[in-house]
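Final report, section 2: Outcomes. Of the targets proposed, Triosephosphate isomerase is the one most frequently requested by collaborating groups, and we therefore present its record in full.
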Amino acid sequence: MIIASNFKTNYTRGAAKAFIKEIQSFISQTNSEQQVRIFAPFTALDHFDEVSNLKVGAQNFYPVQSGSYTGEIGFEQLEEFGIDTVLIGHSERRHILKESQNFIATKYDFAKAREVEIIYCIGEPAEIRVQGIDAVMSYLWEQFEGIEINYDKLIIAYEPVWAIGTGLTASLEDIEEVLTRLREKLCTPLLYGGSVKVDNIDAILHVKACDGVLVGTASWNEKAFCEMIRIADNVTK
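The predicted structure is given below as tokens.
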């Protein structure tokens, strides 16, 4: 399974290095087989000498190799640190930073052309959720406009917008229904994100169509994140 942490706008380079060192140590000591991903801020990127099943990725990028885009980070800067996994389409970039589907698709194509792993985020706001599952799925499929779903390094993260950072988690029935419907058209790994924490990760990972989690706030504590990895190691389906 894939156990991913999104640091968002948190952690300095020193703090991230200490965090990642502890996660590496835990993985090595326990021989964990989980695929672990940590998405750090640009200023915390470095060479971490990761164990083979841990990758440090980028939360964002501008779809250029390099150029005259003041304040942006291109792939040349990511390649310096060997970054080969990225987040695209996170709801905070869609709804807060106003990235359009067209721009998101452009970023996707750019990353795909460089053969990096992509965790592509989709999710619906509360006003769509209350309209029922058909409205939810229609909204989610619109977020695949311009996205090549057969890319072999694609991972989908379903994150209901109303559950991100709110403490609210979709019910297991809701998670299973959405992931099962996504599975009808997608053959890539499917993650769930949205107020995942130590107390509920076991139940979420037991959802049949769920291949892992993308965790925000609850993953920012080293011991808690290690416990999530440990729980994942004990899940059988």
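The chain has one domain: 2-233.
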